[in-house]
Automatic annotation (TrEMBL):
Keywords: Signal. The keyword Signal applies. This is DUF2155 domain-containing protein. InterPro entries: DUF2155. It comes from the Bacteria. Residues 1-21 form the signal peptide. It holds the Pfam family DUF2155.
């Protein structure tokens, strides 16, 4: 065991092992949403800390990370999703990490709507909340 740790430390120092790339913090999260009633899938951009309504769901990304293009794509976001109930109450149904590479792993699976992370990006055609 000591030999493995020594080798890993030496290899890392000599640059033999690949370095972990820094995460890139993005101002825009891209989601896909499925309306199970109509069967329509739409894509929508949401700025970090902005809340966008998709059907009865309110989606709020808190952070959205990606990796440099030279690295394996690992896109993840911390997201909060609230449901507006029929009696107009807001109920948190999801709060956690979503991973674009595994949308089924941590997607919101609602009775009528599904929402999952598709990507993160630096800009959007949608105007930022401060410019609306």
């Amino acid at each position: 065991m000591k030999r493995i740790l020594l080798f890993a430390a030496l290899a890392s120092t000599l640059g033999i092992l690949p370095a972990n790339a820094e995460r890139i913090s993005n101002p825009v999260a891209v989601f896909s949403g499925l309306d199970k009633i109509t069967g329509r899938i739409i894509s929508f951009d949401v700025y970090i800390d902005e809340t966008v309504q998709f059907g009865a769901l309110q989606v709020t990304p808190r952070v959205c990370y990606s990796r440099p293009p030279t690295e394996a794509p690992l896109t993840d976001a911390f997201v909060e999703v609230d449901e507006i109930t029929l009696d107009r109450k807001v109920r948190r149904i999801f709060g956690g990490w979503m991973f674009a590479a595994s949308p089924g792993l941590h997607a919101v699976d609602h009775a009528v709507y599904d929402v999952w992370l598709a990507d993160c990006k630096q800009s959007s055609e949608v105007a930022p909340p401060s410019q609306r």
